[in-house]
Amino acid sequence: MNETDAYLQRHYWTAERLAGACGLDIARLDALLDQGLVPAPSYVVGADGVLHSAAFGDFPEAGATPGRYFHPGTAVWVARAREAVAQGEAGTARITLEQQFRRNFAAALADLDRSLVRLPDSFDDRGTPLAAGLDARTADAWDAFGRGIFGLCVSDPTSEHAIATKEILQETLGTRRQALAGDRAAAADPADLPDLIARYARAAMPFSPLEYPRSSRKRLVEDFAAELAGTSPAP
């Protein structure tokens, strides 16, 4: 077992394990996936040894065990999907799930706008939603959710608030890092950055060894912390 395979076995469930944990046979899980009611697998390893990452694309000769890999938190979304289907047809269920996800994600963003960092594209100074910006954010989040990206990059992708927190921390740190690189004297006080980096480290997945060099975690935890400390990040 190489490092990539060990990572998948430690942090993810195969489709068969997910189905079993949810009390489903694999055919029923596949039906939910085909209907877009459950997030796609974050990783797929083919019989040819190619690992497909939902966020980073293909890695030939990954050496991992073939299969479809889901974050264990996907079980929460399977339960939601089954509840929605029980209340209507599959097409109606997908609309219901999207509306619910986007509504909850918007509520999470409103909370983060108050408690973490201002989101001026989505809320005005009084916290009133700005429809265009907020709709764009929730639409992008729903798309990434369906493609399995959050199961790959969010340590606890079991609620819209947890997902939104990781996303906004990533956005905030990226903006702050860019500002410090451009004009350190004019940038916001960096005193809060170690805490933000630590929060982001908890909110983000470790990433597989194949992905880590290109990951937000390397950029915003390892590299940014080294820059703040005045040392050179690892190559």
Architecture overview:
The chain has about 240 residues and is of the alpha+beta class. The protein is built from ten helices and five strands. It has helices at about 5-10, 15-20, 25-35, 75-85, 90-115, 130-145, 150-155, 160-180, 195-205, 215-230, and strands at about 15, 45, 50-55, 55-60, 65-70. A hairpin with a 5-residue loop joins strand 2 (about 45) and strand 3. The radius of gyration is 19 Å and the shape is flat. The protein starts with a helix and ends in a 6-residue tail after the last helix.
Question: What can be said about this structure in brief?
Answer:
The chain has helices spanning 3-11, 15-21, 26-34, 74-86, 90-115, 131-146, 149-153, 160-182, 193-203, 216-229; strands spanning 13-14, 43-45, 51-53, 57-59, 67-70.
What key phrases describe this protein's structure?
single chain, 235 residues, alpha+beta, 5-stranded antiparallel β-sheet, 10 helices, 5 strands, 57% helix, 6% strand, flat
Q: What strand line-up does the widest sheet have?
A: 1-5-2-3-4
Rg for CA atoms: 19 Å
Question: What about the largest sheet?
Answer: 5 strands, antiparallel
Global mean pLDDT: 93
**Unreliable sequence segments:** none
Q: What string, H for helix and E for strand, traces the elements in order? A: HEHHEEEEHHHHHHH
Global structural class? alpha+beta
Helical fraction equals: 55-70%
Reconstruct the topology from this structure:
Elements: H1 3-11, E1 13-14, H2 15-21, H3 26-34, E2 43-45, E3 51-53, E4 57-59, E5 67-70, H4 74-86, H5 90-115, H6 131-146, H7 149-153, H8 160-182, H9 193-203, H10 216-229
Antiparallel strand pairs: 1-5, 2-3, 2-5, 3-4
